[in-house]
């Protein structure tokens, strides 16, 4: 199957789904389309609540596309690539509607950042998380602010330093990333649907004002995440990272 981003609206809930055959990794074109779709949904008067999900039954998101990382040969290209994650996070931050995260399986790197950027995140017990960036000589610079905001600096630094370990969904719930953890995808989908449709019964103006409160203090993220993208774009050119990435070919 080819990569895609698609949206389906049911009962005033927009289900935005992304997919990539390589474990839902995210190349630049998919990231750009995802940011655009979220922004458009935020402006659509027929939509009251958004659900962010990925295709397939297993991995929610494997993070950055290694194929694109391997082919980055200059800092400007690197910054553009990592800005893709920054743009999605900022689109979620600025979206005036609540975004529910539906995390059905393991999520790595940038995928953890996407989960942390939702306003209410629900998962299965299979949704272990890992920040693997240090393994290849960079770090979770772009997604770090979103993860720190949701889980705290202590938890974020723990998983950033322990870059080889998957942390369980229950651990992620204890740290505030997930609100609920379910035994299987079917139970998760039922809960996500019920939660989203119940939110649609609330005053839209109240939800807009609450969203502003939730994201207060992040007004500088356009500039901050651009700076972080430039850092990642520079580090991906290091000899250490180039050698590491060769092992993934």
Automatic annotation (TrEMBL):
Superkingdom to which the source organism belongs: Bacteria
UniProt KW keywords: Isomerase
InterPro entries on file: ClpP/crotonase-like_dom_sf, Enoyl-CoA_hydra/iso, Enoyl-CoA_Hydratase/Isomerase
SUPFAM superfamilies: ClpP/crotonase (SSF52096)
GO molecular-function terms, A-Z: isomerase activity
Alphabetized Gene3D superfamilies for the sequence: 2-enoyl-CoA Hydratase, Chain A, domain 1
Similarity field: Belongs to the enoyl-CoA hydratase/isomerase family.
Protein known as: Enoyl-CoA hydratase/isomerase family protein
Organism per entry: Bizionia myxarmorum
